[in-house]
Please model this.
Amino acid sequence: MNIAAFLKALEATGLATKIRDSLFIFPLLEATHVIGLALVFGTIAIIDLRLIGLASSQRSFKRMYSDILKWTWTAFVLTGLTGALMFITNATVYYHNFYFRTKMLLLVLAGINMGVFELTLGRKVDSWDKAPSAPPLGRVVGVLSIALWIAVIFMGRLIGFTTTRAAVVAPPSNNVNFDDFLNTPGPPPAPPKK
Amino acid sequence: MNRFAEWLSTTAPSVYIQNHNDWIIPLIQSIHIVGIAVVLGSVLMINLRILGWAGMDQTLRQTSNRFAPWVTSALYLLLATGILMVIGEPVRELVTFSFWLKMFLVALSTVIAVNFQRKLRADRQPIKWLALATFLIWACIIILGRLIAYDHVWGSWSPATKA
Model:
């Protein structure tokens, strides 16, 4: 199966159709994506600032790392999941979007950056655990990490401005909206078919 | 409010942003999101410490001293970028239900935060369920921020659908 057919197949799935047809789901996916990425960047920045030596310098790095990183990863899974769900609603457009591609590239670079850290200084953390900042390589990793994640956020916002979905103003009439939660008697809508 | 928003959209700074909106608005929004990340990450750390789920090598006061100033600074950044967004797109922002509910929740979370700092100075124990509630309020603030762009989901509650 070539990539174009695969993207079309993603868009044709019942799940993607369900999200496209709903007035609520896409905005709530976006909002959850923002909550997730805010937690990812917010917690990673705490680690990065510790590496650089700008904050939390008196704390054990190892202790902070194990304390915080599990929350980062949880949030990352949430962000990835909501991102994937948004992607399938308009897969072809996102796939060919310049900012989407740049964002994916930056995410890979952020991953490599973290991998380099894990394989070098992460292996001998005991030797600098109590130092107010990491050795030079660690400080570089910290600065790169903050820069890459901010760039990821910028690219993400630009995707919204350059794909069709953001430009569509959904018609307010003859769509299900909040009024129906309050006023409509009768059975709730059927759960989505998986 | 409608008339104020329409007047604001005719002022020089607003017109400037409107004429350059292909890059100014995404730029301001992205900075706003970076600010949100700083607030949410810091609030998470303080709240996890209150609940005893993280940072137990530090006292609550140490944790607060480390993160509270970042919350305050980021809130000023959010206020500044938020005001710029209102100036840039007054009607889109102000004539919505989401925006005003969001502002109410921001005020509420500020009151809770000030109260928490006062308790901390008086060496009194913070209320644990309030830590959880604060985090949920911040999540709602973020959701409402995004819903400003989709205010029609509120149906007749949204002034945008009447306008």
Observations:
- Chain A has one domain: 3-167.
